[in-house]
């Protein structure tokens, strides 16, 4: 088996959930996979500002790249279970001594090859939405992207910040489900949870609209790489 390195901590709950999803895929194998974790020590205030697309990116980028370089010396490949960190993914691949799987690339490929959606909703941090990583990649596959309205996007990012800080409110799940319903009413055939913190919050809030968890897609891609 190849050794997988996880550069995580953005946020911690999402990183832990990714690890559990990954190892659960090996229960029918002879053993669990070799995995090493580096948790990025993000300053809370800078993380909040970064997710809201205001400031903090240079410092956080340097912290992530440090983790990439340090952990990359010990493993065969890396994953980053955080969509927002992929806004500077070219620098990540340049800094890494080993291959790095992209959660965005793997998710868009999965949607195009397996889901056959023509209109898809995207739930993500404001930083990811403004980067247009998903919008551009899916457009190239002939898939229309639907996004929350401005007020909904601000609310969603505030909820994501609370999840990262471990301070979520009792009404946060219903608020996110309401945004998902709005995307469904506009014609979304499915909704991508393009923030890895959202699966931490959501139970199955609806049974008539597929929700695609990008953590699941990344875990499946990591499993395949481990077993190569």
Biggest pleated-sheet summary:
4 strands, parallel
How far apart, in Å, are the first and last alpha carbons? 7 Å
Overall CATH architecture of the largest domain: 3-Layer(aba) Sandwich
| Low-pLDDT segments, ≥5 res | none
Count of beta strands: 7
Write the element-wise H/E pattern from the N-terminal end onward.
Answer: EHEHHEHHEHHEHHEHEH
Radius of gyration: 17 Å
Query: How many domains would you count in the coordinates?
Result: 2
Query: Helical content, roughly?
Result: 40-55%
| CATH fold naming of the largest domain | Rossmann fold
Which range does the strand content fall in? 5-15%
Could you describe the 3D structure shown?
- There is one protein chain.
- This protein is an alpha/beta fold and 228 residues long.
- The chain folds into two domains: 4-103 and 216-227, Rossmann fold (3-Layer(aba) Sandwich), CATH 3.40.50.1860; 104-213, Rossmann fold.
- It is 51% helix and 12% strand.
- The chain has eleven helices and seven strands.
- It has helices spanning 12-24, 44-51, 57-72, 89-95, 103-115, 126-131, 133-139, 150-165, 172-185, 198-201, 214-226, and strands spanning 4-8, 35-39, 77-79, 119-123, 144-146, 190-193, 211-213.
- The strands form two sheets. Strands 5-4-6-7 form a four-stranded parallel sheet, sandwiched between helices. It has a three-stranded parallel sheet with strand order 2-1-3, sandwiched between helices.
- Helix 1 (12-24) links the parallel strand 1 (4-8) and strand 2 (35-39).
- Helix 5 packs across helix 11.
- The protein is globular, with a radius of gyration of 17 Å.
- The protein starts with a strand and ends with a helix.
- The mean pLDDT is 93.
